[in-house]
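$ run holo --ligand "NDP" --emit tokens
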Amino acid sequence: MSEHHKVIIIGSGPAGFTAGIYSSRALLDTVIFEGNQPGGQLTITTEVENFPGFPQGVQGPEFMEQLRQQAQKFGAKSIYENIVKVDFSHQPFDIWSDRQTHYTADAVIIATGATARRLHGKGEDKYWGFGISACATCDGFFFRDSNIYVVGGGDSAMEEAHYLTHFGKKVTLVHRRSEFRASKIMIERAKSNPKIDWLLNSVIEEFLGEENFGVKKLTGLRIKNVVSGEMYDVQADGVFYAIGHDPNTQTFKGIINMDETGYIVTEGKTSHTNVKGVFACGDVQDQTYRQAITAAGSGCMAAIDAERFLSDHN
Ligand code: NDP
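-- output --
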């Protein structure tokens, strides 16, 4: 059994849903594969303050639900499956989901986004989910009156550290350098928060913990100062990663052109990939801006490019 659609969008963040809105408003039969994380990264974010049109901010999950409804209003259909294999060597394109279902499409828009990085340090696997997390919004609540550490020096680290002070008795930001990648306003906000401490030029060497009657619990961290080489242990109840993301492009390796870090390469100011009829938008092709608004904008571009491609080829 196979199912054909004019436009298949793989991914359901701001890029995928915006592509869905534009594609379905162009009266193209459109489906959106929502993948492993329906709604994408913003569903594990607290407040989105910088999307134009929301002067009071908007909660990430609520915002994504609005985008989904807007795409569905014009006829786009969501399918809650994960795409695991594609063949773009001929038209129509072949696509398979993790449910072994086969789909074909005349145009494909890749909007698979990026995934939070991990440190892969000693003890990480053991205590992952037992004190180590990559989602402050999801897990912050579990660390009330606790000693929390946040790793990273970008906007996410500043935002998460600030957010986690609502729960923890103290939040310590661990960063491997003394300079920050984060924007000035975010650094200032974090610096003016008296509950945030700073461990700069420092990395986590090991995650320490205990296991009682099969119950694991993170209890501390072995910290290394990368300038002095000094190593010491600190007491810690929770660690949150905010160290960036990797593009979700494994399914397209060897099929779609990517740069050396795995991001999809698009042509000039368009969403065209090296395969005619396959387009890419959002964080999967943008290592520089990675904002909800830029992802949404590029989703719009991808749908317009797909619509033009289809009208030229039909
Ligand atoms: P970034 O890539 O900007 O920052 C990642 C941070 O993690 C860097 O400080 C980096 O250190 C550090 N890091 C990376 N790998 C490791 C490692 N293995 N060990 C230790 N530290 C590591 O990612 P963000 O998620 O912070 O931000 C992504 C984008 O989203 C940015 O464009 C940002 O502006 C935006 N954003 C905007 C927000 C807002 O406006 N409200 C909120 C959150 C994000 P180093 O600097 O040394 O490389």
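-- notes --
Residues 289 and 312 are 31 Å apart (CA to CA).
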